[in-house]
Design brief:
- There is one protein chain.
- The chain has 133 residues and is α/β, with parallel strands linked by helices.
- The protein has a single domain, classed as 5'-nuclease (Rossmann fold), CATH 3.40.50.
- Helix content is 53%, strand content 14%.
- It is built from six helices and five strands.
- The protein has a five-stranded parallel beta sheet with strand order 3-2-1-4-5.
- α3 packs antiparallel against α4.
- The longest helix is centred in the middle third of the chain and has 17 residues.
């Protein structure tokens, strides 16, 4: 089963009709969307001029049968703490929201699809950056 968690930038690329992103997502059995990604999108929507339209489109995406919203729980918090500890040891901090997104991908056993290279700093995180990767 091909399971991918998507980062905020991947959803934005999908909505902008990026052919590579559309191809990658169409080949997935399950697409995970971390609640942090949704919060980032809501923030962007609220700052833009098409908030209602963007929310309706996101809700339709999230309602698709192959899409699952990934909530945080105690196990996610454990993964988060472990990631922070390892990044501090390496001296390689990354944005807090991205640590939550990575923690949930690890917890659920999803590869993370993102265009942000700093996710490479997280040990054990499977990454996708485009079609065929």
């Amino acid at each position: 089963m091909r399971r991918i968690a998507i980062d905020t930038n991947v959803y934005v690329a999908f909505k902008n009709n990026d052919a590579g992103v559309i191809e990658t997502l169409s080949n997935c059995d399950l697409i995970g969307v971390d609640i942090t990604v949704i919060a980032e999108l809501f923030t962007g929507f609220s700052l833009g001029g098409r908030e209602k339209k963007n929310r309706v489109e996101l809700e339709a995406f999230l309602d698709a049968p192959r899409v699952e919203v990934l909530q945080h729980d105690l196990e996610t918090a454990e993964f988060y703490a472990l990631i922070v500890k390892k990044l501090k040891t390496k001296g390689r901090p990354i944005p807090t929201n991205d640590i939550w997104i990575a923690a949930n991908a690890l917890k659920h056993g999803f590869a993370l699809y993102s265009f942000d290279s700093h996710f490479q700093e997280i040990d054990g995180l499977l990454l996708r950056s485009g079609p065929g990767s």
